[in-house]
Fold this sequence. Notes:
Helices cover 62% and strands 17% of the residues. By secondary structure, the chain is of the alpha+beta class.
Amino acid sequence: MDGQPDSDGHRGITEQVLAAEQDERRRIALFLHDGPVQSLSGVALMLDAVGGFLSRGASEQAAEILEKALSRTRTTIGELRDLSFTLEPVVLRDHGFGMAVNALVEEKSIEHQMRFELDVAAAEVLGERSQAALYQIVREALEGAIRRGPPQTFSVLIEPSDGRALTVTIQDDAPTERRRRSIEVLEERARTLGAAISVRQDEHGSTMRLVLPTYATSE
């Protein structure tokens, strides 16, 4: 009897993880279908047209369409590269969580003229998969803030909590939004870590707090 709650709790966490992973696969499938797949289908049609113009000796029209096909192909390559980086950034695998988050936020801060503050060294105790999941949470929180704003400031603080957990605080000063879906995505990510998450939005921006239990540090 004493072991039953733990068993039920473990099963519940496992089901939540599986549900979140299924949702993630569904999002990726929809992105691929509506983005790169449709784009490459359009490129194929354009190349067919190029062949038709060339067979009729209409080289100028062929060259014009070919340039459009090349432009769309380059855009699609960029989309797929971004997807690859989103799924597993090389810098995270090779250099650790702190450098990966710094590279992500620094790039966006230059692009959108934001100030940022990071104190994330405590996350290095996490296992590889937990670091990857937490990285995705930071990335989606950052992209959400940029979509709402962009913000003037963005900060991430990760610190030990009573030796039993890590507390992650992500703040921005972008305008708030009423849409629930963006928060639901973050909640799904948090479930993969067995973490508790809270999001507060007011006139000053958004504050998200995530509490990771210590068992997330081992895999």
